[in-house]
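ARCHIVE CARD
CATEGORY: sequence design from structure
SOURCE FIELD: tokenized fold
FIELD CONTENT:
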């Protein structure tokens, strides 16, 4: 799993284990939320322009006003004749500007006014939970719901956690700049919602490279996102919004929350080494509709080491909707395995559900004894590899290359045959495209090489771990 905050649940398991749970409704802690008005309809709203470089992805509407559409750059906008909005391949939603057809100009004027009113409301609150928390450095802190004020800027050099319930509210008043360092996360824990977090910033907001930010930013000046950064929230700026390969997703409505239930089953109860087993995961959302979530299926061995992971991104669930996920896992050794399942928001920063013991799998047969050793020529243990034509090379020692088949698999996935190659010396070789190996980031990725005789009996296997550059 990619983050550390998990929802603890009690699970009753059978051959088809069922776990039902969700985020519970509670009396809200912290101040009353800020009414964004029609500004809340936008993922990004700016008075002086929105620009992007790199492959940005915005889920939600964008708008500028009073500046014209020419101030929206890098999005390759498409504007049909006499249309009230334009579109972009980088935006899942509509793009609005005041020089588009009616009723867009008046709607944007209202939204900009609502944005400024919301900023004034947030900046004017005074029933403080704390002032000058951390002397302006909040890295490493866990912050409960409340109203917080700084007369200076705020620095977030390491992860900060906002811990509270689904209806709780955080308001941060920052008199100068807000700076979030590279690779840092604003983590939501305990069911906290990005839509209930408000960052009221008088200076510039800067989100560092690959950082993950949660909440609504209402900024009196500019909001800048560096390369590969992520915003789960809204960027509402009274000057410009600048993006660089940034992922922005407007949060779901604050009314109601998703509540998931799962059941897991396996295609067979008698599994042997190197035999594929299909894990059937049925996921139901009993709460409010939610979009762009991740369904994560993981398998751990008896030493609690993760040997397999498959996750499904950009999953959308209406209220009451059920979806089924079929995942194939190929064990490489005998023993007991445990299936774990998690449900996260689009960037892994919020955990809706985590079942630590969703299903047990027993693998019989025998783990191959090492009589004849597999020599893996490339990659070697710990190698950093990448590219679209990376050769995987090896052979079974002291065995004619024509008398056996060799396969490779990554993270317990599908077995892929490695053809015979006679260049330089008879061996097995397969050129692998690593450009899509992104599910663990840079890794490590667990590679398993298996040699079988012509009858399909396992002769030997060898495993290594590698990292992948992109």
């Amino acid at each position: 799993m990619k983050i550390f905050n998990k929802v603890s649940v009690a699970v009753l398991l059978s051959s088809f284990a069922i776990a039902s749970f969700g985020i519970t409704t509670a009396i809200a802690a912290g101040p009353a939320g800020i009414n964004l008005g029609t500004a809340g309809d936008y993922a990004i709203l700016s008075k002086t322009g929105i620009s992007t470089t790199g492959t940005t992805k915005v889920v939600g509407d964008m708008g500028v006003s009073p500046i014209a559409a020419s101030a929206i750059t890098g999005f390759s906008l498409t504007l049909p004749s006499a249309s009230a909005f334009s579109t972009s391949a980088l935006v899942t939603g509509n793009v609005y500007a005041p020089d588009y057809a009616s009723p867009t100009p008046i709607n944007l004027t209202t939204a900009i006014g609502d944005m400024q009113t919301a900023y004034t409301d947030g900046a004017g609150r005074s029933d403080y939970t704390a002032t000058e928390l951390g002397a302006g450095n909040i890295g490493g802190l866990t912050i409960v719901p409340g109203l917080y004020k700084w007369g200076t800027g705020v620095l977030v050099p390491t992860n900060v956690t906002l811990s509270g319930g689904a209806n709780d509210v955080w308001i941060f008043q920052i008199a100068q700049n807000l700076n979030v360092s590279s690779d840092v996360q604003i983590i939501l824990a305990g069911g906290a919602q990005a839509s209930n977090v408000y960052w009221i910033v008088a200076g510039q907001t800067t989100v560092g490279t690959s950082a993950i930010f949660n909440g609504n930013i209402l900024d009196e000046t500019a909001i800048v996102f560096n390369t590969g950064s992520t915003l789960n929230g809204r960027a509402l700026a009274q000057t410009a919004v600048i993006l660089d390969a940034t992922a922005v997703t407007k949060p779901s409505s604050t009314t109601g929350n998703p509540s998931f239930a799962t059941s897991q089953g396996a295609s067979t109860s008698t599994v042997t080494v190197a035999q594929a087993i299909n894990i059937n995961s049925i996921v139901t959302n009993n709460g409010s509709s939610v979009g762009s979530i991740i369904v994560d299926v993981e398998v751990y061995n008896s030493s609690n080491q993760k040997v397999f992971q498959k996750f499904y991104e950009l999953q959308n669930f209406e209220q009451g909707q059920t979806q089924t996920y079929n995942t194939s896992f190929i064990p490489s050794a005998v023993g007991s395995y445990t299936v774990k399942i998690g449900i996260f928001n689009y960037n892994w920063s919020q955990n809706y559900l985590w079942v630590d013991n969703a299903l047990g799998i027993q693998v019989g047969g025998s783990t191959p004894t090492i009589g004849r050793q597999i020599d893996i020529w490339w990659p070697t243990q710990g190698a950093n590899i990448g590219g679209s034509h990376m050769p995987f090379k090896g052979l079974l020692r002291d065995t004619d290359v024509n008398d056996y088949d060799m396969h490779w698999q990554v993270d317990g996935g599908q077995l892929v045959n490695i053809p015979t190659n006679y260049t330089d010396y008879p061996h097995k070789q397969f050129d692998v495209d690593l450009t899509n190996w992104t599910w663990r980031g840079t890794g490590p990725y667990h590679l398993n090489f298996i040699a079988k005789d012509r009858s399909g009996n396992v002769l030997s296997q060898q495993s290594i771990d590698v990292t992948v550059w992109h």
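CARD ANNOTATION: The mean pLDDT is 84. The first strand starts at residue 17 and ends at 20.
SHELF: design records, drawer C
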